Amino acid sequence: MRRLGFLLLLLPALAAADVRLPSLIGDHMLVQRDQPIRLWGWAEPGEQVSAAMAGHSSQAVTGPDGRWRVDLMPLPAGGPHKLEIQGKNKITVDDVLVGEVWVGSGQSNMGFQVRNAIHADKEIASATDGQIRLFQVKLETAFTPKDDVTGEWMVCSPKTIPTFTAVGYFFARHLRQKLNIPVGVIQSAWGGTPAEAWTPRETLDNDDELHAFLERWNRQMEAYPRTKVRFDGQLAKWEASKQGPRPREPAGPGHQHQPTVLYNAMIAPLTPYAIGGAIWYQGENNASRGQGYEYEHLMRSMIEAWRQKWGVGDFPFLFVQLANYARVSDTAQWPELREAQTHTLRTVNTGMAVTIDIGESQDIHPKNKQDVGLRLGLAARAIAYGEHDLVYSGPIYRETSVEPGKLRLWFDHVGSGLMAKGPLEGFQVAGGDGRFHAAEAKIDGENIVVWSEHVKTPVAARYAWADDPKAPLYNKEGLPASPFRTDDWRD
Q: Which among 59, 83, 370, 444 has most CB atoms closer than 10 A?
């Protein structure tokens, strides 16, 4: 009996010595082509660990912290391969593909599931391409960066696709069809969350402008004990009567709105894994708080921080501009945030999918995610995969020239020409008094000329500058123009 007890006590120590892998390294995984294949995990300090796949092998010694890392030689797209990792124990990872890996992050429109998209039954039934791989990160927050997430790789099928990100899937499907190589998407998104929650702490700490996000949260936490007591009283009254809406609990420590906590739990553990790029659908939360003027700097800083953490260069970062939506309390909030998103294009290797034409006025979660995925896919093909002649964006305002009583607007991404779907509405002009009036507009070659009988000398123009605007301007490739303004006046 004493010997049995000794063995039982020894079992945890033996288990601790086993080589362990993060959840990203497992059966059906998809690794990034043409980059060193990063493998890592945990074992007993000083333990030698080796890895081998597709005729390549490498080894390392576990450090004092119990961590090891092995890099295998880059591989071209293909597979399936078998990965073998050997320490005091041996782990075999089956069905490994090599292709393009993208991270899909943001809030609820990135988390929006395939089963809720338009034509969902048809889309689910046709999701039979085993060369598309899916990984969903479990929702979690953390005060400091974690070293692993909860999730597993899945093969795309009618069984696995219904609850996966619709934008991510339709994006992956487009790339898979056009590139003819395996494509994987790592979904790491949480509905209703602000961009600062996805940003590393040091990025906010070391920037005076961004530090304001931390200061706001700290003030909220100082008030939390009082707001929690008030909420508890309101909840007790509501539970006694069940009348009216249930009171909303105030955000407390560790809430998903807290700056950095989603980066720590749901992005930091992904950064050792080589990727080809990221897609991002977020902004509704920051817009609802009137942070359009702050958002550009926050987004550009977050993108730079992610790139530094991944350490694979300025990988493509593609994002979705906010769609049209009518149920907004302050009509300046969403136009200002869309403008900040457009300005984020000043960051190298970024692209934007304009969705001002496919939103739903009364639903913040538009169901047409197919076109969102398609437009992100077009941007990826041009920015990440070198299809330089591809028209991947709708018209983006560039500059203005002045004519007698009129303004001439110039654009990038005109493609084969400008066109209007219906009357050319949505334009406004203002004179020096800053008062805007509805404008007449006409297409003149690759320009738009605008004027108004109410503005003798126009100095500024706007297009689709509203939460749910008329937005009929496209290029002839069928991609919508981004909303814009030529002024920088505070509304």
A: 83
